[in-house]
Amino acid sequence: MSQAPLVSLTGVSRHYDTLKALDDVTLDIRSGEWLSVMGPSGSGKSTLMNLLGALDRPTSGRIHVEGLELTAMSDAERVRFRRERVGIIFQQFHLLPYLDALENVMVAQHYHSLADADEARAALERVGLLDRAHHLPGQLSGGEQQRVCVARALVNRPRLILADEPTGNLDLENETKVLTLLRELHAEGHTLVTVTHAARVGNLADRRVELAHGRLADLTVHSEELERRYDEVLVQMWALEEDGRVPEATAWPRAASSSRPGRRSSSRRADATARAIWCGDGGWRRSCSRPRSTCPTRTSRLPRAAWSTSSIPRSRTASAASSGTHATARTAAPSLRATAAPFPSSPDVRSLDAAQALAERDGFAVLDVRDPDAFAAGHLARSGHLPLADLTARRGELPARDTAVLVIGADGVHARLAAEQLEALGYACTAWLDGDPVLSLRDHLERSPAAPLWRPSPFLVDALAHLPDPWSGQKRVLDLAAGAGRESVFLALRGYQVEAWDHDRGALERAQAMALHHGVTIETCVRDLEIRDPRLPVASHDVVMVFRFLHRPLFPRIAQAVAPGGWVVYETYLEGQERFGRPKHPRFLLHQGELPGHFPGFEIVRYEERTPDEGPMLARLLARRPNDSSGRERAP
């Protein structure tokens, strides 16, 4: 008789008005299994995690954990469930800032039963932080704070551990440490559910499922090569969808049916996964924006070492032979040609020799990925610089994904690895210099400063001529929903004092790091701007800017935050954008002509609505608040 699942969801939905965050999800999770839930932003991953952790209630359906029905529990019973039966690792840490690491771990013990300092120290020692036990969260790095969260989650020895983007804010070194901890917990018999964007994290799990628009589908893969290709497509597809470039279109290309131990097939794949878009001549639609002649057919590739998970053992299921745990291990399927249908090619990557690189460089953004000393010793003119190890963590400093990029490394292998990483991030056309630039480009190297490859919103660039001169004293800027911080850094480089607000602490940390790399500083503030009554300081800033974010209760607060004589720069999505991808819900989309009406009394200097056939649909506003009643500008 088969064992009952530890976690069971039956027909679970979570709706917010007309938005279906989860829609009829049915899922079983076995005791001791590691399940990875993947999907683009807004697909319902965190909603699912909140329901499993009894932090929210479903609109319909039933949830059972260890035989207990969460949907039938009272509020007090749900609190008891969270205390005693589940450990939660949050992406945003949620550590109490006035308690040190040891005390933060003991808080979980206090609500469970009795606080035990020795057990809390043992948990910190387990995650390698015993020597940091008496440091406050503000004195710890992001990776160390996340490991405190892991210690807090495991100190009460729960059977079920939920991890929401556990490595989303971490560099590669700290990501590896956290993943190793999760792998060890799983080997000890804990049931893990992780939410992630990263294929590297998903590959460690026994089973991966994908959420798309609130619907669930199993990911079925039939060989290591096919799995690698699925990972590449997922990374590119989610990047496109989050940019609002994926319409409700073509179904996912699927391999021929084949059994594989440890994986379940799903007949729901076609209508439940996010959509993949391919051009008529192969490749992503984005790659068709540039003539194919600039990106000839790529040559064979080196292994994608930079995305490998070989340094971290996979799950117990995947490493059964070495762990001795009784489980079905991954087995090598027959060759891809024998087991799968032809798989569409990904964007082009090609090699260039020195002569080709010099002849064609004007058609590329040049990215030098060597170490800082080598770059400073000499590089091609107008080269950007980003070390290979920082490509993912500092991806906000990369150019737009439809840009053709020429990569220069310490040698051909180094450059190709970087080009492959860019391809996995969704870049339409990448090339790499096959050789040592010091030898092959010796007569063309110079020692100029690195060129910035990233670009802010073109609307902000155009609006800059209207904004007050920062040297006149009017230079205080508030960037709301700042995200990657490109617009913040752009204005900071021009002398403005910028304060960036966002709910995502990790994004703000990356924005600060980006500013420092460019020799400027920005202030940041972690603030949820989507609450019912958001508050902003009054008449405090000379420029308030918002890009691709909409929360209507925020409009009057923005108007109040602008100082007399100050400016609003606003760009966000119009209704109709839902045809091209996210956002889809009406509350995130402006009606035509709506935006100017939210700033009564402001002088509308520029307003435009862009509705190109290929998207995105955008409204753009540049407005100025009148001076005070005396007719004078506010003194700085």
UniProtKB/TrEMBL annotation:
GO cellular component: a single term: membrane protein complex
- Region (Disordered) spans which residues? 250-272, 286-347
Keywords associated with the record: ATP-binding, Nucleotide-binding, Transport
Bias (Low complexity) ranges: 250-260, 290-333
The family database entries (Pfam families) matched by this protein are listed as:
ABC_tran, Rhodanese, TehB
Q: Which InterPro entries match?
A: AAA+_ATPase, ABC_transporter-like_ATP-bd, ABC_transporter-like_CS, ABC_transpr_LolD-like, MacB-like_ATP-bd, P-loop_NTPase, Rhodanese-like_dom, Rhodanese-like_dom_sf
Q: Which CDD domains match?
A: ABC_MJ0796_LolCDE_FtsE (cd03255), AdoMet_MTases (cd02440), RHOD (cd00158)
Q: Which residues form the ABC transporter domain?
A: 7-238
GO molecular function annotations of the record: ATP binding; ATP hydrolysis activity; transmembrane transporter activity
Which residue numbers delimit the Rhodanese domain? 360-440
Q: Which PANTHER family match?
A: ABC TRANSPORTER ABCH.1, IMPORT ATP-BINDING PROTEIN
User: Protein name, please?
Assistant: ATP-binding cassette domain-containing protein
